[in-house]
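Service request form, structural biology core

Requester: graduate student, group of Dr. S.
Request type: structure prediction, single chain
Budget code: on file
Notes: please return the result as structure tokens.

Sequence provided:
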Amino acid sequence: MSTTTTRPEARELRITKPLATGRNGELRPSALIFLLLLWFSLFVAFAVLVTLLITIFITGQNKLSWNLVTNFPSADPEEAGARPAILGSVWAIGTTAVLTLPLGIAAAVHLEEFADRKRWFNRFVELNVQNLAAVPSIVYGLLALAFLSMLGVTNKNIVIGGALALTLLILPVIIIATREALRAVPSEIRDGSLALGATQWQTTWRQVLPASVPGIATGSILALSRALGEAAPLLVLGALVYITFDPNGLLSGYTTLPIQIFNWTGRPQEGFHELAGATSLLLLAVLILMNALAIFIRNKFQKRW
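Core staff response, request fulfilled:
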């Protein structure tokens, strides 16, 4: 009887415990100052973001029309559009996904499920994967440029060249996200499968991977969102800033939305600045949709263990 009477009291104590006054609810000055600094940082970041979004919307709202999506770039800002940049982004991100997802997921499965963590080589690979996730994006553009030069590719302004640079950029991110999703699967599922006679490969393929698909999909979509907004590695490869044709293959010339924005921003005419603002809103809408899809997949298929 004593146990049943004390549990509600304990729950009430946990709920009513103040969260903003430091350890044990103390009103220490250091805890309050730290809390105020956190709120100030949040306010500054949010204010900068809102100011940036409002500025972009005011600048580009007049150019938000179907002409922006269907027209080719032009010397006249009233007739210019971002059609080749939109199709180029689709080609570059699609090729990047095909190159990155199988390679990144397979590498993560090997490191998490099969590799011997006591071996120095595996620990060395894990350490380098974590460090590569923080390398500036322009470095991957230089690596892709050197690789294409080594292969003797003279024209580097091609879709497969840009996709290679973006693959190098997001591959560590996908490996890390996939490993975190695999770690979230309880070890009891692996133990139960192995106890029933399944091999380690069967356990990984039929139990662990299906259970970790929501986390893998979420991390992959967020990584591809980052690749969609990158321009630095593609500029290193000499991506075109003014094209009047649609990309039609892996060896075709191309441009992307961030590069098109970069080009229009540098023009002196005010009309191109408005086009840059409208294209930024279009790119932002695509990124929000991709992040919303990642959140939907996570909430829809995530399992509570």
